[in-house]
Amino acid sequence: MFIQTGLIRNAREAIVLSLQIFSRTIGAKYRKSFLGYFWMIVPVVVIAGGVSVAKLAGTINPGVTGLPYTLFVFIGVVIWMIFVELLDVPYQAFDNARSYLTRVNFPREAIVLVQVYEALVGATARYVFLCAVIAAYGILSFGGALILLISIVTSVLMGLGVGMLLAPFMILFEDLRNTVRLFIAYGIFVSAAFYAPHSGVFGRVIQINPLSIVMAAAREGVETGDLTSVAPAFLAVVLVSVLLVVVGTILIRIALPIVVERMLIGGR
Hints:
Mean pLDDT: 80
Order of helices and strands: HHHHHHHHHH
Distance between the termini: 36 Å
Number of strands: 0
Largest sheet: none
Shape: globular
Radius of gyration: 20 Å
Helix content: over 70%
Low-confidence stretches: none
């Protein structure tokens, strides 16, 4: 009973503290740049535009896509970027807090929550941008917008869950951190962000990639306003993503004292 009460109180304190920090930092962060929040969607436009030009030049063969190719790429790139941003959130939160994490006593989860809030602002901006692009193509429907939203939330949960599972080990082992950086840089090419899965080994790798399933669900939802062919696989990915967040949260709570102790021993 006392343990449960302590956990609830600690969670409440972490949420209150994180909201206070977030409300003071988010505005200042984007006021520093001239374009402000527009920088959240600029990378999506640049990547999607470049890939679309490459497709027109015949450099990329995306296969059969039910949607216009530029929109096809927009959806894939947005889901990928949201995933990798959330994947990096737990590590960045603790890495940025090294200077005071071992000196100040406060709910450690708060620093992760602040970073999550910032990532959610970016995800929301990209979702609104995607809806605007889809509306410009004249195919936006309520069902499509809802499935797209669920797909983006799933990519948030998946990225956050995997990130929390890896963060303690990335802090302790630099080689793992470098491996994750490599994945963030080039992993998009083994997803369905730029092309529909082809036959063969590479096509099979793309098909079984959970992010490819999320992208396929989002595109099918936008195109038809419903889910048919990918519904069972997408539901499985949603459930696994929720489970990853739960397990990752537990692991963070267990591992944090060990990580902080190692920081103290190592003088980090």
